[in-house]
Amino acid sequence: MRPNPDHRRVAANADALHALTRRGFLKIGLGFSAALACTALVPSLAGCSSVDPAPQAGMSFLRPDDVAMFRALLPAIVTELAEAPPPRRASLEHDALRNIDTTCAAMGAGAQAELRKLFGLLASTPLRWALAGIRQDWSAATPAQMQAFLARWRASRLATLNAGAVVLVKLSSVGYYAQPAAWAGCGYPGPNAAVYRALHA
Q1: Mean pLDDT along residues 53-81
Q2: Is 133 left (phi over 0), alpha (psi -120 to 50) or beta?
Q3: Cα(178)–Cα(176) distance, rounded to whole angstroms?
Q4: Which alpha helices (H) appear in the chain, and where do they start and end?
Q5: Which tens digit of pLDDT belongs to each residue from 139-195?
Q6: Where are the domains of the chain?
Q7: Distance between CA atoms of 16 and 54, rounded to whole angstroms?
Q8: What is the pLDDT of residue 9?
Q9: What is the pTM (predicted TM-score) of this model?
């Protein structure tokens, strides 16, 4: 899953964030809404109130379950992150998560609503087990399990799952490669200094 070491690919990945439009999320929302509606009945039937959790401390959109999911996804999608020494890995992972949160927070209300359906489905243990094949907490999932989950969704005959896999991979990969500290890992030398100065003078 390591990207081609070509700076044009890095630039293309950055542009891919803008392709996560409401049109693309409609494929996700229609399929996930029904499943989430079923899981939402469980707390009410048990007499419990369902209150939306607050975002993770220091973040605007991602909730704790979302952060745990992306922590598991990142080393499965970005192979050099899995191989990095622990201190460097922690730093790169931290900045990638902030980039993902910033991207989600900057989206329109419609796109955010569809993202929330996708993340909510994967936060539900029964649905995660049934659809992703992962029954344990995200923190216990291995990169191999996460790769199998993504491959399963990509190969599915359901457009809903195909679209969900694309969104998760784009958010993870672009959130990681948007940080300059990660450029060397894919062979991108960074912007031409003279051109950069001219454009930002």
Answers
A1: 93
A2: left
A3: 6
A4: 7-16, 22-45, 64-77, 79-83, 86-106, 109-123, 125-132, 143-155, 159-177, 193-199
A5: 999 999 999 999 999 998 888 888 899 999 999 988 998 887 766 655 555 555 555
A6: 8-43+63-182
A7: 28
A8: 44
A9: 0.74
Inter-residue contact 149 to 133 (CB < 8 Å)? yes
User: What is the spatial distance between Cα 52 and Cα 3, in angstroms, rounded to a whole number?
Assistant: 36
Q: What is residue 191's DSSP assignment?
A: S
CA distance 130 to 80: 30
Q: What are phi and psi of 177, to 5 degrees?
A: -80, -5
Residues 32 and 193: their CA atoms lie apart, in Å, by 46
Cα–Cα distance for residue pair 165/154, rounded to 1 Å: 6
Of the pLDDT bands very low, low, confident and very high (cuts 50, 70, 90), residue 136 is very high
Single-letter code of the amino acid located at 23: R
- Cβ atoms of 44 and 83 within 8 Å: the answer is no
pLDDT tens digits, residue range 51-66?
Answer: 678 999 999 999 999 9
The tokens of 106 are what? Answer: 């900057």
Looking at residue 21, its pLDDT comes to: 43
**CA distance readout (Å), 149 to 42, 102, 131, 133, 196:** 25, 25, 8, 6, 40
Q: Map tokens 């998760």 to a residue.
A: 168
Whole-angstrom Cα distance, residue 13 to residue 179?
Answer: 12
Distance of CA 136 to the CA centre of its chain: 18
